[in-house]
From TrEMBL:
Gene3D superfamilies: Fido-like domain. The lineage of its organism: Bacteria, Bacillati, Bacillota, Bacilli, Lactobacillales. It comes from Companilactobacillus heilongjiangensis. Residues 63-214 form the Fido domain. This is Fido domain-containing protein. It comes from the Bacteria.
Length: 261
């Protein structure tokens, strides 16, 4: 296994949850089979260790309902980013914490956010698995797996990471190491996330297809992705970029405090 490629995949996966370690630090952790080289002051250890466990689980089981559940079941590190009951499908009828909302509006207005189904069953996941198995199994079909699992929000937490690992399993990327990764630049990743939020709120298959196409357009091409995965570590992947002097930071994406509806 090429640990440089896998390190790039894990840092891409971790970007969904503010993973702060560099690709070089992640590769060192993979080489040493230890999380010690990672940043120790945030969620990196949990994201790294659970990603490895989730990947190994679905590699053994394969892309299936059981495989998807097994990925999330291995997100069991004691961390706020991980589900309280890993691997359990959401049922808000008996678990209040399973009643979730995905904020798609910066002011967190109830009418402008996405409310996934309150009860998720294995049948819901089976539809996603069967749709892929009956498709051409092209790269776009694998990204549909990612988008569909993400939209379903089958678990309390870790849904997009579960979805990305599962999409790679569907695409058999664990065998050829041509991993499906998120856009490499922060701006493209933000644009990709916006289109994913639009996919969440789409209320028809044609609408979903429109936003999936937009997501695909933002992603690196297969050639760009393979070239990046194969490349030696760049200076930016080795060292964290630091501003040369002091600046006042003016964020364009502002996070609101979580609100309950």
């Amino acid at each position: 296994m090429d640990n440089t490629k896998l390190a790039r995949f894990i840092t891409s996966l971790g970007s969904l949850n503010d993973y702060g370690s560099t690709v070089a630090q992640t590769k060192k952790a993979l080489d040493a089979k230890s999380s010690a080289p990672l940043e120790q002051n945030n969620h990196d250890v949990a994201i790294f260790e659970d990603a490895i466990s989730g990947i190994e689980a679905i590699k053994k089981i394969g892309f299936s309902v059981d495989g998807i559940i097994a990925v999330n079941k291995n997100f069991d590190s004691p961390d706020d980013e991980e589900p309280n009951i890993p691997g359990h499908l959401r049922n808000a009828m008996w678990n209040e914490a399973a009643r979730i909302v995905v904020t798609t509006d910066s002011r967190a207005r109830q009418s402008d956010n996405y409310f996934p189904p309150e009860i998720v069953t294995q049948s819901d996941l089976s539809k996603i698995v069967e749709e892929y198995k009956n498709s051409l199994k092209a790269e776009k079909d694998a990204w549909r797996v990612f988008a569909s699992i993400s939209k379903l929000q089958p678990f309390q937490d870790g849904n997009k990471r579960t979805a990305l690992i599962s999409a790679n399993a569907a695409y058999e990327a664990w065998e050829n190491e041509n991993y499906l990764v998120l856009p490499f630049s922060d701006l493209d990743r933000a644009d990709f996330t916006i289109q994913l939020m639009r996919y969440y709120k789409a209320d028809s298959k044609s609408e979903e297809n429109k936003y999936l196409d937009r997501m695909i357009d933002i992603l690196p091409s297969a050639k760009e992705r393979e070239t990046k995965l194969r490349a030696p570590l760049s200076p930016e992947e080795i060292n964290k970029e630091k501003l040369a002097t002091t600046y006042k930071v003016k964020p364009q994406f502002r996070n609101e405090n979580n609100k309950n509806f």
